[in-house]
Specification:
314 residues; alpha+beta; Glutamine Phosphoribosylpyrophosphate, subunit 1, domain 1; 8-stranded mixed β-sheet; 4-stranded antiparallel β-sheet; 8 helices; 33% helix; globular; binds aspartic acid
Length: 314
């Protein structure tokens, strides 16, 4: 329920659950139904926070924690396996009001990597911590730890075994990375992204989801952005920052900026993926050049909508 003082104020929330090719797998229809429900539940829960006056930074962390806890997505529980059959998780978060940011890479026992990223933002003089140092910092600051086996699901184990059989490395095209962008009633933007990375990725490989400016960016001067797709390309394209820069310096609207970055910049580098963005007026943009992007949005004046295929929603 909306709090009285906040009634009529502008807020907006968009989330994604990854972009990909949508390979046929057994039970695809049932899985799609589950994914739609999960996205809808996350939107409802986090929208409740935003409409009650919560900060955008709280909202994006909340949404991403919920998505990490779902085994359906490639982040937290349900993450993909690296070439050694182990988990290395990446996440980042950025506050558009202060431009403060936190990022972590290569986590193996932190239940919610986005919480570790938030701890880096709040309690560390640094922006980006990786590997054992990141893990030790998160543990010291009270992040919940789990055994690596917690992250495992049958579906991701099967994808890993299939990749091994076909001798494929760093298999792209599997949906699942998660992200959230929000505008709060105080006029502040924030973005967060979390991932298990790419199936069968090299040990130590870090993708765009942990890189501020590539997978995640937020500034009250422009917009908040969270990306998903082939991380190497998104890093080279500085994709998230490019969307914000186009809005800030070229006066493009957020929808046109998002389209341009995905369909021109990322595509010209041979990259596949997508992004979600929200500007300072609460306008939501989705862009992707893959067959699917799991996504959804809700704002103060538009009902919750969830989509998977290109035509599902604009
Ligand atoms: N961008 C993520 C990475 O490269 C993967 C994804 O979004 O599917 O780690």
């Amino acid at each position: 329920m909306t709090m009285r003082a906040e009634r009529g104020r502008v807020w907006a929330l968009a989330i994604h659950g990854g972009a990909g090719a949508g390979r046929q797998e057994d039970g695809a229809e049932a899985l799609e139904r589950e994914i739609r429900h999960a996205l809808a539940d996350v939107l409802d829960a986090t929208a409740h926070l935003l409409s009650s006056g919560a900060a955008a930074l709280e909202a994006v962390e909340d949404a991403v924690v919920r998505l990490e806890d779902s085994p359906l997505f490639n982040a937290g529980k349900g993450s993909v396996l690296n070439e050694r059959g182990e988990f290395e998780l990446d996440a980042s978060i950025m506050d558009g009001r202060t431009l403060r940011a936190g990022a972590v890479a290569g986590l193996t026992t932190v239940k919610n990597p986005v919480r570790a990223a938030r701890l880096v933002l709040e309690r560390s003089p640094h922006v980006f911590l990786a590997g054992p140092g990141a893990e030790a910092f998160a543990a010291r600051e009270g992040a919940e730890l789990v055994e690596p086996a917690y992250f495992e699901t049958e579906r991701r184990r099967a994808a890993f075994e299939a990749a091994k059989r076909n001798a494929q490395r760093a298999l792209p095209g599997d949906t699942g990375t998660v992200g959230a962008v929000a505008l709060d009633v105080h006029g502040n933007l924030a973005a967060a992204t979390s991932t298990g990375g790419l199936t069968s990725k090299a040990v130590g490989r870090v993708g765009d989801s942990a890189v501020i400016g590539a997978g995640t960016f937020a500034s009250n001067a422009s917009c908040a952005v969270s990306c998903t797709g082939h991380g190497e390309t998104f890093i080279r394209a500085t994709a998230a920052r490019d969307v914000a820069a186009l809005v800030e310096y070229s006066n493009l609207d957020v929808e046109a900026a998002a389209r341009r970055v995905i369909h021109e910049r990322v595509a010209s580098l041979g990259g596949e993926g997508g992004l979600i963005a929200i500007d300072t007026r609460g306008r939501v943009a989705f862009a992707f050049n893959t067959a699917l992007m799991l996504r959804g949005a809700v704002t103060h004046d538009s009902p919750r909508r969830v989509g998977i295929r290109i035509d599902d929603l604009r």
